[in-house]
Amino acid sequence: MNKFFSIKDVDDIYKIIDESIFIKKNPFYFKTIGKNKTIGLVFFNPSLRTRISCQKAAFHLGCNIWILDINNDSWKIEMNDGNIMKNTQEHIKEAISVMSLYCDILAVRTFPNLLDKNYDYEEIFFKKILLYSRVPVVNLESATLHPLQSLADIITIAEHSSFFKKKCKVVLSWAPHIKSLPQSVANSLVQWISKIKEIDFIITHPKGYELCKKYSKNVQIEFDQKKAFKNADFIYAKNWSSYSDYGKVIINDFNWIVNMEKMKLTNNAKFMHCLPVRRNMVVKDDVLDSELSIVLEQSENRIYAAQIIFLKILQSL
Ligand code: CP
Question: What share of the chain is helix, strand, coil (3-state, %, to 5)?
Fold first, then answer.
């Protein structure tokens, strides 16, 4: 693997899930492969899980790791070409090129601006990172995709369905939020889940929150949340802002919160969320604190999602 931007960089999704579960059981199996190798993690946006799970994954592989929170610990970065840099101190061209000289894998997080749909959905920012880096790049969440999260989610679903032995129903449910959030978790989840033929997948959201057709065109949409929840085995709650009215919170219907009454409509479904989650806005405490919730397992699997990707890249260096 020479980069990890999206599911398109993975040859066989079933195999990579299987391999992830193997390294979860044997985290130090490849403990020498990272000897004398360095992974650089660069954050243009905040993180808890991504940052620490990648650190832990690197530790399992015997890698060195450095982390840069660019907004707080570095120079103000210029993104545009040709500008007179009056208010910025370092151009993205030098910043990424230099950082890539200091590591063997460069992993980067860059959220969307949620103002310019074309800029975000063309992944202009991340394309610059891919262009200027001299080493393989890993996507720690870009403007439109969060593939490490999706890999961790799909590992978690595999573990709870005896590796998809029986067909299961997964519902991605839009949930209310007071802020405009990216569509990246939802887009990515659709991409990954659509590859698993044993999963019956439905998205439920209020009208106006349709995801970009590029991702959702073959997915069943149900505007009635309670109908969607019927017989579900997994409820994945996530807020995202409007794609059509780009980046806007067009309606904020707090009736879309996930509560125990709705969970009772399901097939004793597990509750999923990528975290961080706003309690009693997205999901009620009693669901999150119940045995139905597998959010911590998802977070734990972030380690093995990162580890399998780092491993595959290290193996190809
Ligand atoms: N789920 C996730 O990516 O968490 P962080 O934003 O804390 O990294």
Answer: 40, 15, 45
